[in-house]
Amino acid sequence: MAKPVSIEVWNPNGKYRVVSTKPMPGTRWINLLIEQDCRVEICTQKKTILSVEDIIALIGDKCDGVIGQLTEDWGETLFSALSRAGGKAFSNMAVGYNNVDVDAANKYGVAVGNTPGVLTETTAELAASLSLTAARRIVEADEFMRAGLYDGWLPNLFVGNLLKGQTVGVIGAGRIGSAYARMMVEGFKMNLIYYDLYQATRLEKHVQLVYCINLLAPHFADTCMFHVPAYGQFLKANGEQPVTWKRASSMEEVLREADVISLHPILDKTTYHLVNKDSLAIMKKEAVLINCSRGPVIDEVALVEHLKQNPMFRVGLDVFEDEPYMKPGLADLKNAVVVPHIASASKWTREGMATLAALNVLGKIKGYPVWSNPNQVEPFLNENAPPPAASPSIVNSKALGPSWCKQSNSYGRKNPGSVLRACNAEEC
Ligand SMILES: NC(=O)C1=CN([C@@H]2O[C@H](COP(=O)(O)OP(=O)(O)OC[C@H]3O[C@@H](n4cnc5c(N)ncnc54)[C@H](O)[C@@H]3O)[C@@H](O)[C@H]2O)C=CC1
Ligand SMILES: O=C(O)C(=O)CO
Q: Where is the D-isomer specific 2-hydroxyacid dehydrogenase NAD-binding domain (predicted)?
C-alpha cells in the first residue's frame, strides 16, 4: 500500500477531480479548471521525482484526469490505475512524451496530451545560448575570473570559435530545430545543413525565399510591399558573404560538414544513441555539439571519452542519458557546459505549458474536440480571452476513435462565431 502523499486542494466541491503531480507555474491553469467545476489537487510532496506508487496513491479511487511530468513513468500500471478510478485524460506538461506508453493509454482509452508550440522559441534560445557558451568558452572564462586568476589581457586567453561564416547542422528540423536554425542563420550568419526524416518546408522557405519586412502589421504579410528577395542575396548586396543552406541526405553528412551541431529530434527507437562512438569520430575535431532534446539521443559514455581525447571538441548539454545523473567523468571536463534541463524555463513558457496541459485534460473531461493545429496554440494562451473549447494537443486522438478526430477551430465559448483560419496541412 503506497504512503499517502501531501496535497493542496482548490475548489473542494468541484464535480470533476483533476490531479497535478507537481505545483506548476502561474494560477491561470488552476482558475480555468475551477471555472469548469473541477476540484484541483496538487501534489506538494517534497520529492522531485514521484514513483509509480506515489502517483497511484494520488490517483486514488476517483480521478477524472491527471497532469503529469516528463520525469514520471506513465505506462500500463498508471493508465490502468487511472482507468479504474474513472479517468479518461492525462497530459504531460511537456512536448516530449517519451516517458508515456501511448499504446497502454490507448488500451485503457485514456487521452494523452502534450504541450507543443509554447516552448519552441524558448528551447531554441537555450540551444543558441549553449552554442555560444560552448563556442566562446564562457563558463571556463567565468570560473577563471571568479577564481581570481585574471591578471591581464593575453592574446591566447580563452580563444574559442567564431560562428559567423561557419556551418550550423541541425538534426531533427521540427518546430524547435527549425527555430534554432533560423536564429543561427539570421543571428550569426551561419550556413545551414539539416537532416530530418521529412523535408522542413517552412524552414527552407524561410531561409531560401522571402524575407518579408512588413512595416505595417503581421496580418498584411501576404500583401506586403517590401520583399527583400533572399537573405543570401540581401547579404551579398551589402557586400557580405551570402549564407547557404541544404538538406542533407544522411545524418553523417551533417556530422562531417557542420561546425556546430544541435540535436532536436524526438526520442524513440530510431534516435536512441543517434550520436555514438562512430558518429563522434566523423565530426570535426573542433566541432561544438548541443543537445536540448533528450539525453539518450547521445551515448554519453562515448561522449565523455571523445571529450577527453579531443579537448577542442565542445558540448553544451541540457539533458542527460541517466537524468538527473551525469555519466562519470563528464562533470570534470572543461570542454562540457552542462545545465539542468532548463531549455523551456522562461516564466511565460512554463505558465503556458501548465495552461495547455490543464486544457488538454479539461477538454477530454468536457467532451470537447481536439484543436485543429497543435502548432498554433496562441488562442489558448491569451489571458484576456476565454480559451477555445478544445483540447490543444492530444497525441493519440486518432487511436481513440472518430469522436476524438473531430477537430475544432472555434474560439472560446463566449464568442463561438469567431474562427481561426483553417489548418493548412503544409504548415503543420
Ligand atoms: N530540453 C528541453 O527542455 C526540451 C526538450 N524538448 C525535446 O525536443 C523534442 C522536439 O520537440 P519539437 O521540435 O517540438 O518536436 P517536432 O515533432 O516538431 O520535431 C521533431 C523532429 O524530429 C524529427 N525526427 C524524428 N525522428 C528522427 C530521426 N530518426 N532522425 C532525424 N530526425 C528525426 C521529426 O521528423 C521532427 O521533424 C521533443 O520531443 C522533446 O523531447 C522539447 C522541449 C524542451
Ligand atoms: O517539453 C519538453 O519536452 C521538455 O523537455 C521540457 O520542456
A: 130-210, 226-343
For residue 166, being part of any structural domain is answered with yes
Q: Active-site residues: which are they?
A: 294, 323, 341
Residue 107 sits in the same domain as residue 183: no
ipTM: 0.99
Q: What is the pLDDT of residue 374?
A: 86
Q: Report the pocket of ligand 2 as residue ranges, CB < 6 Å.
A: 70, 94-96, 119, 344
Range of the domain at 208: 120-338
CB 319 less than 6 A from any atom of ligand 1: yes
* CB of 332 closer than 8 Å to CB of 338: no
Which residue's CA is minimally distant from atom 2 of ligand 2? 94
Residues 313 and 210 in one domain: yes
Pocket test for ligand 1, best of 70, 71, 95 (most atoms within 8 A of CB): 95
Give the per-residue pLDDT at 346.
Answer: 98
Note whether residue 162 is domain-resident. Answer: yes
Is residue 285 located within the same domain as residue 398? no
Of 224 and 97, the one with more pLDDT: 97
The answer to which of 26-40, 121-135, 208-222, 386-400 has the lowest mean pLDDT is 208-222
Residue 329 and residue 397 in one domain: no
Q: How far is CA 335 from the centre of its chain?
A: 25
Total domains, the chain: 2
In a domain, 183, yes or no: yes
Q: Are residues 144 and 58 located together in one domain of the fold?
A: no
- Three cell numbers written together for 396: 493519440
Per-residue pLDDT tens over the stretch 334-377: 999 999 999 999 999 999 999 999 999 999 999 999 998 988 99
Q: Which ligand is nearest to the CA of 268?
A: 1
Contact 308, 151 (CB under 8 A): no
Q: Which atom of ligand 1 is nearest to the CA of 266?
A: 39
206 and 316 share one domain: yes
Give the span between the Cα atoms of 403 and 394, in whole angstroms: 13
Residue 325 pLDDT exceeds 80:
yes
8 Å CB contact between 65 and 88: yes
Is residue 149 located within the same domain as residue 297? yes
Look at residue 291 and tell me whether its pLDDT is greater than 60. Answer: yes
d(CA 423, CA 412): 17
